[in-house]
Amino acid sequence: MANFSKSNVPQFSVDVYQNEYLPEGGREVNAIVTVTATGGGTVGSAVTSPHVYAPGESPSAAVAIMVDCSGSMDYPPTKMRNARDATAAAVDTLRDGVHFAVIGGTHVAKEVYPGGGRLAVADPTTREQAKQALRRLSAGGGTAIGTWLRLAERLLSSADVGIRHGIVLTDGRNEHESPQDLKAALDLCAGRFTCDARGVGTDWEVKEVTGIASALLGTADIVADPAGLAADFTQMMETAMGKEVADVALRLWTPVGTTVKFVKQVAPTVEELTGRRTEAGPRAGDYPTGSWGDESRDYHVCVEVPAANIGQEMLAARVSLVVPQPGEGAVQNLGSPGLVKAVWTDDMAASTSINPQVAHYTGQAELAQVIQQGLDLRKAGDFDGATAKLGRAVQLASVSGNADTAKLLAKVVDVVDATTGTVRLKAKVADADEMTLETRSTKTVRVKK
């Protein structure tokens, strides 16, 4: 069993990459904000709180694993067996002291282990008991993922811990509740716990699985071959065990007259955050980023500033990281803020130059968008439209060096010329290849420094 305890929490840094120069009359300011958390095991200290842990402490955590037990999990029978084995592998990866539960999901949610509306605390005995309980899992019934999430929220909320995380595995469409029911469950759970979602096989709905992960600030992926579940679940749980600071928010302060146009995560995946803003005092808003371990992520911030004369300069935005503290509205700042600036100039070369990071991630965001549009058009029978969009995707993947996405695209289209985006749709495409491309379309590559 891996041991993921660390003596200290990471130290956060904020770096801003932008071209701060605007032409006369220019108002739109773009910046890439790189947030890095480093040295969780070696440096720094933090205030003890429900969210940040003092030196020498391991972060407390609770995990709920939700396993699809609907009837379709028996077709083929290896699917249910692999799901049991994968969940057992995930349980083995839990470090001692972590609270956990296993939920069996059909059209209702059932507590598989430990039961009684409570969580178990991981140790050799409870891990073995959980694996014995998993052997009794059998397939039968429908699929209502919202009920699984609601039970997970009740169980996870019962633990006084900083990190709360869920894992959802499904093999089918969410046919036994309405989309509104699922959305209501996601709204309830958002901010209460983070959640990774996995689709196994090829009979599930990509937008449902990616929507769950997006709403709950987790990852989504396809495991086309059930035999790959154990390795995937182990990796997911190792990542969850490495999280050390929960409920981190990107706080954006802007001066009077400045409007936030959008805030989005652009690496390691594209995730729109603009609509998730919560107000945080005069001219400040918080955008949720979930839980962090030792890692780095990039965000694209776009603001509109008041017009100004040549030679003027202003602070367009201040970006900081905060975590909640006990007390109404109390927060702790993590690291020093990053500053987004605007300087008006008549130097045409300076004002028309596009910052390489901004250009790269604008292309990566477009890449994710045109893949989705192209696949939707292909499903709708608009093959000309699909060819144009997926051709543009091939071109963008080539320019940015996104080799993984380029390989996935090549399974859906025949690439004639990647540089110009000239492609032909393949006559036959395996469901797994199309679903993999759609599920992973938001994965980005970082700027080559």
SSE layout:
Layout: E1 11-17, E2 21-22, E3 28-38, E4 61-68, H1 77-93, E5 99-105, E6 109-113, E7 120-121, H2 124-134, H3 145-157, E8 163-170, H4 179-189, E9 194-200, H5 206-215, E10 220-223, H6 229-241, E11 245-253, E12 259-267, E13 271-272, E14 278-279, E15 284-292, E16 295-304, E17 313-324, E18 331-333, E19 338-344, H7 348-352, H8 356-379, H9 383-400, H10 403-409, E20 413-417, E21 422-425, H11 431-439
Parallel strand pairs: 2-19, 4-5, 4-8, 8-9, 9-10
Antiparallel strand pairs: 1-3, 3-16, 5-6, 5-7, 11-15, 11-17, 12-13, 12-16, 14-15, 17-18, 17-19, 20-21
Helix pairs in contact: 1-2, 1-6, 3-4, 8-9, 9-10
What does this structure look like?
- This protein has 449 residues and is α+β, with helices and mostly antiparallel strands.
- It is 31% helix and 30% strand.
- The relative contact order is 0.15.
- The model is unreliable at 1-7 and 41-58 (pLDDT under 50).
Question: What would a concise description of this structure say?
Answer:
The protein is α+β, with helices and mostly antiparallel strands and 449 residues long.
What is the rounded distance between the termini? 36 Å
Number of strands: 21
* Poorly predicted regions: 1-7, 41-58
Strand content: 25-35%
Helix % is 25-40%
How many H/I helical runs? 11
Tell me the radius of gyration.
23 Å
Structural class: alpha+beta
Overall form: globular
Kindly report the average pLDDT value.
92
* Sheet of most strands: 7 strands, mixed
